[in-house]
Please model this.
Amino acid sequence: MGMSIREYDEPVEMIGHFAGGRVQPCRFRWNGRVYHVVRVSSSWESREGAHPLYHYVVRTTGEDVYEIHFDTSDLSWTLDCHYSEG
Model:
């Protein structure tokens, strides 16, 4: 059994904590379900034109791992992909 990756590029609603010029994802709603972020495994910044994108790999309570990003041009969050065992 290996790791499976599904790519989405779908909008999500995020509740995050903003402090010190950074945002910490707390929980998000996707497909009508709420996912609680237990841990941010990694984060990095990229650019699309003049606007930075903030990327996060987060682990939720169900041990699932999601990659999401925050787009500063329109203040939107997007689910990029979901990693799962199996």
Q: What stands out?
A: DSSP finds no helices and six strands in the chain. Strands lie at 3-19, 22-30, 33-48, 51-60, 65-71, 76-85. The mean pLDDT is 92. The radius of gyration is 13 Å.
